[in-house]
C-alpha cells in the first residue's frame, strides 16, 4: 500500500514540483498517472521508492515512512523503471544487466540463472542474451531495463513512460503482462502520456497539473471528459473523440473501446435502416 | 518522370562486427514534397534506413553497404556527411544525443555557423525556428536543464533552422505530452505543405500521424513489406497481421466493414470517421 499525505516537494533550484498531493494506492491496484510535461508526475513517483524525500508531508510504503528507510531497502519492494533506459543500463551484455541487481540482492546463482531466462523470454529478448544493450534499438533497450527490474519480482512496480518507442505488439504484450501482475496482486503505477494505451487498459487514472491532482477516477470516465483533460494537456483517445462528435445523435460519450464503439454504431445503423 | 528526392535500389547494410544485415534489399522511391510515414515493429531497421538518408551510414558507422542510394541527386556513398547535411536533416529519437551547447540558441545556430551562413541570416533563421517550435522563451537556457519534451523541440528547431529539403524525424515526439506532440505533428505537416519540405517521419503512433501521410512504408525484419497509399495499406489484412498500430478510426472501419456496414472510403483519424458517420446518420 502506498500512502501519500499532503506531499510537497521543492527542488534545490527552487522549483516547487509538488504542491499538496494526497492519495492512497492499494495493493493490486493498476494506476496511470497522466498530465503534461512538468506537471510533477515523475517527481511524485520518485517518492514511492525513496529516490526523493518529501520537503513537507509524508510518503508511507506498507506503513513505513520513506524518510526512515534507505532506497536500497525500498528497492527490494518497489521496482522503478526509468523513462530513459540509458539512465539505467551500463553492463556489457543484456544477461549481465538483468543479473546485476539479483546479485546485489544476494540471490543464489541457480536462482539468478532461472530468473534471467524467465525475464528474457517474457520480454522477447532471448536472442539478445549476449548482446550489448547499446547495440539494441531504443525500444529494445527499454525492454532490457524493464526485464532487469522484473527479474527480482518487486511487489510494487513503477514504470515511467513504458510505451515510448514500443511498437504495437510490444504494447500489447506489456498490457497482458500488467494484467497478469495485477492478477497476482502486484501494484502497478505507470506514468504515461499514451492515451490510446490507457484507453486499452482502463486503469484508475490520476490526472496531474502544475504539481496538483486535478482528477482521480476510472479511465473510461476521465479520458472522456475533454474539459478536465485539457487542463492536463491531454487529448481524448480517438474513439472517445469520435463519440464526442456524434453526441448530437444521442450516442453515449463515455466510450473508449473500439469493439464497444463498433457495437453501438452497428445498432444505431440497423435501427436507422429499419 | 522527375527524379525522386530519395531513391534506393536493393540497399543492404550490415553494421561492423555483426553478421546479419540490418536492412536487406530495400528498394524505395520518395518523391519531392511527399510526407512519408515509415513504420514497423521495433528493431525492423527503420532507424538504420534513416541513417542512410543523411550519410551517417556508411560514413560514420562504416560497416558494409551494398546496393544504390541517391539523395537529392547525390550518390550518398560519394558525398561527405557535411555536404549531405545541407539537404537532409535528421532529428534523433533521443534528444540528448543531439544537444550539447550551453544555450538553446547556440545549439540551434550551430549547424548554420558550420555552414558559414551570414550572421544576420543565422539570427533570422534561429528566431524563426525557435518560434515555430514554441521555445523562443527558452532561448537563453542550457538545453540540459530542460525537460525531455522541451529538449526534443530544441532538436527539431536545430534541424529546422538549416531549412533542409528533406527532414527525417525518428520518433520526434516520444517525450512530449499529447497536446505537445499534436502541435509538433501539425507543425511538421505545415513545413511539408507550406515550405514543400519532404518529410520522412518514423512513428509507431499512427493514430496521431496517419492522416498527414501521402505515402506509407512498412518494414519488418529489415525488409520493406508494404509500400504505398496509406488508406489502402492501413485497411489491409497484411498490415493488421504485421502488428503495427493501425489507427483506431481505421480499426473501427474494419470492424464495421466486417459486419457489412460499409463506408465509402477508409478513415485515418477520428475527425474523418466522425465526419463520415455524421453524413450517414444525417440522411
What does this 3D model show about the protein?
The complex is a heterodimer of chains A (274) and B (283). Chain A is 39% helix and 22% strand. Chain A is an alpha/beta fold and 274 residues long. Chain A has two domains: 2-236, P-loop containing nucleotide triphosphate hydrolases (Rossmann fold, 3-Layer(aba) Sandwich), CATH 3.40.50.300; 237-274, no CATH class. In chain A, the strands form two sheets. Chain A has a six-stranded mixed sheet with strand order 6-7-8-3-9-10. Chain A is globular. Chain A starts with a strand and ends with a helix. The relative contact order of chain A is 0.14. With 283 residues, chain B is of the alpha/beta class. Chain B has two domains: 6-242, 3-Layer(aba) Sandwich (Rossmann fold); 247-283, no CATH class. Chain B is 40% helix and 20% strand. Chain B has helices spanning 46-53, 56-60, 81-84, 104-115, 119-132, 148-160, 178-195, 206-209, 230-234, 237-242, 248-258, 270-282, and strands at 6-14, 23-26, 29-30, 35-39, 64-71, 74-75, 88-91, 166-170, 198-202, 215-220, 223-228. In chain B, helix 5 packs across helix 6. The longest helix of chain B has 18 residues, at 178-195. The interface between A and B is large, with 46 and 50 residues.
Write the layout of secondary structure elements.
The complex is a heterodimer of chains A (274) and B (283).
Chain A lengths: L1 E9 L5 E10 L4 E6 L5 H6 L9 E6 L2 E2 L5 H7 E4 L12 H11 L4 H14 L15 H13 L5 E5 L7 H16 L3 E5 L3 H7 L2 E6 L2 E7 H4 L3 H6 L6 H8 L12 H16 L1
Parallel strand pairs in A: 3-8, 3-9, 6-7, 7-8
Antiparallel strand pairs in A: 1-2, 1-4, 4-5, 9-10
Helix pairs in contact in A: 3-4, 3-5, 4-5
Chain B lengths: L5 E9 L8 E4 L2 E2 L4 E5 L6 H8 L2 H5 L3 E8 L2 E2 L5 H4 L3 E4 L12 H12 L3 H14 L15 H13 L5 E5 L7 H18 L2 E5 L3 H4 L5 E6 L2 E6 L1 H5 L2 H6 L5 H11 L11 H13 L1
Parallel strand pairs in B: 4-9, 4-10, 7-8, 8-9
Antiparallel strand pairs in B: 1-2, 1-3, 1-5, 5-6, 10-11
